[in-house]
Amino acid sequence: MIVVGGEALIDLVPVAEPPGALLPRPGGGPYNTALALGRLGADVAFCSRVSADGFGEGLLSGLRAAGVDLSLVQRGPEPTTLAVPSLAPDGSAAYGFYTEGTADRLFTLPPSLPPGVRALALGTCSLVLEPGASAYEALLRRESRRGLLTLLDPNIRPALIADPAAYRKRFLGWLPYVSVLKLSQEDADWLGGRVEDWLAAGPSAVVLTRGAAGLTVRTAEGARYGAAARPVVVADTIGAGDTVNAALLHRLVGGGAGPVDWPAVLAFAAHAAALTCSRAGAEPPYAAELGLSR
After folding, report:
1. What are the backbone dihedrals phi and psi of residue 156, each rounded to the nearest 5 degrees, phi first?
2. CA separation for the pair 7, 124 (Å, rounded)
3. Confidence (pTM)
4. Cis peptide upstream of residue 18 (ω within 30 degrees of 0)
5. What is the mean pLDDT of residues 50-75?
6. Which of 69, 187, 242, 261 is catalytic?
7. pLDDT, tens digit (0-9, with 9 covering 90-100), for 173-217
8. What are phi and psi of 129, to 5 degrees?
9. Is 242 annotated in the active site?
10. Which runs of E-coded beta strand occur in the chain?
């Protein structure tokens, strides 16, 4: 089983008609990652705190339909976090957030994860907003020490980070507990570090997404691989990076004990992300669309 921890929220996505209208869509980097894994047929559980309001019920319904295990989901009466993406002409998105007093940031550390868990993925707002951020950080450290494969996607949202210097320092403190660091070129530029230094701190691999320029990976052994982006008519890029997370985890956890075939892993991730970019909102592909059997 793969456990994905972090926020579930509602993206209020701009639509063309009527002017100024916003369409509520399920979102949140970890939520999208769990949804994508479920659609790929992975054994996946979502670990979060979700509102009992109508938005929260809808979020869980979407995960349930994808076959995601919800036994680690905590519930609360507080409202669901809202995110308002603004879309650039190329389909890329910037975000504003409404997070005050919302349910997901009140996540508490579960006493244990289910038997058979092989990987844990964390990232995005959940590692910024307290007090939940400290609980997720404790989860990362505990499960890494237990030997789980851990994937971290910082998925930087500058509007939520009040003290960038403190966040960058905290990020470096996570790296000894991270197996795979996945981040966008924009994240890397904002963090201001070097891949070589991040690898030296602990991860076995750093995967960098570059939009239309594709994906690359560098490993702790010094290997480098890349995959081209698949040509696609882009509706928007919402959820594309989260789909990459899911594709990486699907292949890394399901690939057996041998060496990682990174070119094949990256090509699979590029294909999955392209399909997500071809549709509005975070709509990751199903297994059949990628030639997989569930």
Report:
1. -60, 130
2. 8
3. 0.93
4. yes
5. 97
6. 242
7. 999 999 999 999 999 999 998 999 999 999 999 999 998 899 999
8. -85, 120
9. yes
10. 2-5, 9-14, 22-27, 44-51, 73-76, 82-87, 93-98, 119-123, 149-153, 180-184, 205-209, 215-219, 224-227
